[in-house]
Structures are given as C-alpha cells and as structure tokens.
Amino acid sequence: MNEAATKAATAAKTIETNFVGRTSIVHIPDGRAFCGTFVCVDSGKNIILGNTEEMRVTPEGRSSSRNVGMVMIPGDCVVKVEVQEDATQTQHAPPQPSLAQAGWPDDESLYS
User: Fold this and answer.
1) What is the pTM of this model?
2) What ranges does the record give for the region Disordered, renumbered to this chain (predicted)?
3) Residues in the chain with pLDDT < 50?
4) Which of 1-31 are b and which e, b meaning 16 or more Cβ less than 10 Å from the residue's Cβ?
5) What CATH number does the domain located at 3-106 have?
C-alpha cells in the first residue's frame, strides 16, 4: 500500500472510531449549529448528520431549535465539529469538555 492510501485508511479509521454513530455538534459560519448523530463524511468534507436539531441564537440572545432530520452540511461551511462524550466514558472518568475536532484528519490530500 502506498503512503497516500495508508494515510487515507488511517483517516477513515480515525473518523469511524471517533465520530461515526456519536452525537456531534457541527457549527457553521452564520452562527447556527446542528446537533445529531454523525453518519458519514465524504471526499468533499461534507458531513451527514441524522436525527438532527438545528440550534440558533437570535440577536436578542434567545435560543431556538427545530428538528431537521437528516442533513448534509457542506464541508466548506464547517467551522467546528464537537463530539459529545459517550456515557461509558463519563462513568469511568471525570467529566471533560466535548472533544472539539478530536482527531479530525485535516490533511487536504486525504479528501481528493
């Protein structure tokens, strides 16, 4: 296996282990955030979330949310990805903040 294929396989394993099936919050530039179950990411870094809530804060400081089901968030609109901790982690370890961009493969060559 060549180096590029090895990097891609490592990135896929990292995403599968740290993101797929876990509750994630994806923030976009206009201030909205989408909280749902991470389903997949494609070669364009587009993220698919299932059972998703769209959350927003109004200029007056009020928050609102609505169920939007399954969504695709364009990769070029992703500002930050947070992964919620598993319940099993919190039972055995002290609570910690969510894993902001935990292990997200950021080598551009992996997505081409």
Assistant:
1) 0.72
2) 84-112
3) 89-102
4) eeeeeeebeebeeebeebbeeebbbbbeeee
5) 2.30.30.100
